[in-house]
Design goal:
The chain is mainly alpha-helical. Helices cover about 70% and strands about 0% of the residues. It has helices at about 1-10, 15-30, 35-40, 45-65, 70-90, 95-110, 110-120, 125-140, 160-185, 190-215, 220-225, 230-235, 240-245, 250-270, 280-300, 315-330; strands at about 305-310, 310. It has a two-stranded antiparallel ribbon. The protein is globular, with a radius of gyration of 20 Å. About 40% of the residues are buried.
């Protein structure tokens, strides 16, 4: 039906802004995440589009904070994003709300961020994980400077609980939002308790993927003055966060990267069975997305892995093989 509509609809009636915005979202995904770009091809129809738009929003929001010229500008971006959510989830609905959102986005955000905000499928997404995502960005900003030479009185990720909370906020939330979209487009006949069970497993899987991300990006994060390895772990190795900033490839740091990967693997193994309980429209795609990202952790355990822009990468043919195996798993 969608194909027929596309063939017979007058091109003059296409929503050119939306079409351009989707193209920008696809480009952002392709440039920022090879693993998730590959996985996106395994979803279909409107679900695929909405997942790409969700990724585009999350990536754009993260870039507004991480690429800010100053800590004040970064905090201002978080504040503006929260105002955007306040308007989007206000009791006010209809044309007045839409007009307020349009005005806010056009006046407060740079042009390359506007479509990511305006095309976010908010009507299908829970508010709480989006607000929690912003709290995760605020935890990033507790590393009070992008200057790696600055000493911190305290470090945001002091304990393992801090690590899990941070990972939940920046990644577990995104997994929950993805499931919102899967449930919307599939309309499965799940009980409230079953849906809650799957969402909790999704949050946990998001934490696992974030731990892989942290293990991969120790050196990259050190350049930003950030250390996500818990300070208590570092203390056990007779290290401090400042030591990691100075020498992120220290053998002791590499041991702790292994600890992160083992923890990620444990959480992944506990949560992965929930993927098989998802509706058919999301099951295979989610499996590909998870396995593709977990493969980064497996590459990190190997010697002489390929590095691009300071990050370990999975070779292209290996990514395709992993995706195919995940897609065809019964």
């Amino acid at each position: 039906m969608l194909l027929l509509r596309g063939l017979f609809l007058d091109p003059l009636n296409y929503d050119e802004r939306r079409t351009a915005g989707i193209a920008q979202a696809v480009s952002r995904l392709k440039n920022k995440s090879r693993s998730f770009y590959l996985a996106s091809a395994t979803f279909e129809g409107r679900l695929r589009i909405d997942l790409i738009l969700l990724y585009s929003f999350c990536r754009m929001a993260d870039d507004l904070v991480d690429d800010a010229a100053s800590i004040d500008e970064a905090r201002s971006s978080v504040h503006k994003l929260r105002r955007f959510l306040d308007v989007a989830y206000s009791a006010e609905k209809g044309t007045e709300q839409s007009a307020r959102l349009q005005e806010l986005v056009k006046s407060e955000f740079p042009p390359n961020a506007q479509d990511a905000l305006l095309l976010l499928p908010l009507e299908y997404l829970s508010a709480a994980p989006l607000y929690d995502l912003l709290r995760g960005f605020e935890m990033d900003l507790e590393f009070s400077s992008h200057d790696s030479g600055t000493r911190h009185k305290s470090w945001p990720i002091a304990s393992e609980d801090d690590l899990e909370l941070y990972s939940l906020r920046v990644a577990g939330t995104v997994a929950e939002l993805c499931l919102d979209l899967v449930f919307h487009h599939a309309s499965p006949d799940y009980s409230r308790s079953k849906r809650a069970e799957l969402i909790q497993a999704g949050r946990n899987m998001g934490i696992a993927l974030q731990l892989v991300n942290i293990a991969r990006d120790v050196a990259v994060d050190a350049k930003l003055g950030r250390v996500y390895i818990p300070s208590i772990w570092l203390k056990d190795m007779e290290l401090t966060p400042e030591d990691v900033l100075r020498e992120p490839r220290d053998p002791k740091v590499e041991i702790l990267q292994g600890s992160l990967l083992r923890k990620a693997e444990e959480i992944y193994r506990e949560a992965r069975s929930a993927i098989e309980q998802l509706p058919p429209n999301g099951r295979s795609g989610m499996r590909v997305a998870v396995e593709s990202y977990m493969e980064i952790g497996r590459v990190l355990r190997e010697k002489n892995y390929h590095v691009k822009s300071g990050r370990a990468t999975v070779p292209k043919l290996r990514r395709i093989r992993v995706a195919w195996q995940a897609l065809t798993r019964l």
